[in-house]
Amino acid sequence: MTVTNDVHGPIDFVLIEFPGDKLTGEAGPALVDLVERGIIRLYDLIVLSKGEDGTIQALEISEDSAGGFQYFAGARSGLLGDEDAQEAAAAMEPGTVAALIVYENAWAIPFVSGVRNSGGELIASARIPATDVMAALDALEPAN
Fold first, then answer.
1. 102 CB contacts (<8 Å, ≥6 apart)?
2. Which DSSP symbol is given to 60?
3. N or C: lower Cβ tally within 10 Å for the chain?
4. Where along the chain do its domains lie?
5. Residue 67 Cα to chain centre, angstroms
6. Helix (H) or strand (E) segment spanning residue 32
7. pTM of the prediction?
8. Sequence-ordered alpha helix ranges (H) in 1-144
9. CA–CA separation, 14 and 58 (whole Å)
10. What residues does 41 pair with on adjacent strands?
11. Residue range 70-127, pLDDT digits in tens
């Protein structure tokens, strides 16, 4: 199978909100692992903080950032703009920190290439949130 440079995997965005006082530092290294193993290609990462009074602050990711996120210093493709950050901030609860992430599902590139080389086209797509899947599977388990 031939994979050309113009083939991309599905691109997703997620907005992940964390309680501002309960950050464990586990998310950053887990995201680094996905990138380093080639499972995803990260395009953008914006970290926002929403104060108890509703004020929004974009947090700069730098070489000195904590929680493993320093790996992503400068991760800005231009796909996300100020409007996207404002919309994300509006969805946040006061007293939280959120990561707005745009990433490509790089694992899917060979499959997408194979589909395209066979004349196939994606005609529908949906994402089921992990929490919904876990709840559905829990509901299927027999009660003890």
1. 11, 12, 13, 42, 43, 44, 45, 77, 79, 80
2. P
3. C
4. 11-140
5. 16
6. helix 27-36
7. 0.81
8. 27-36, 82-91, 109-117, 130-140
9. 16
10. 104
11. 888 888 898 998 899 999 999 999 999 999 999 999 999 999 999 999 999 888 888 8
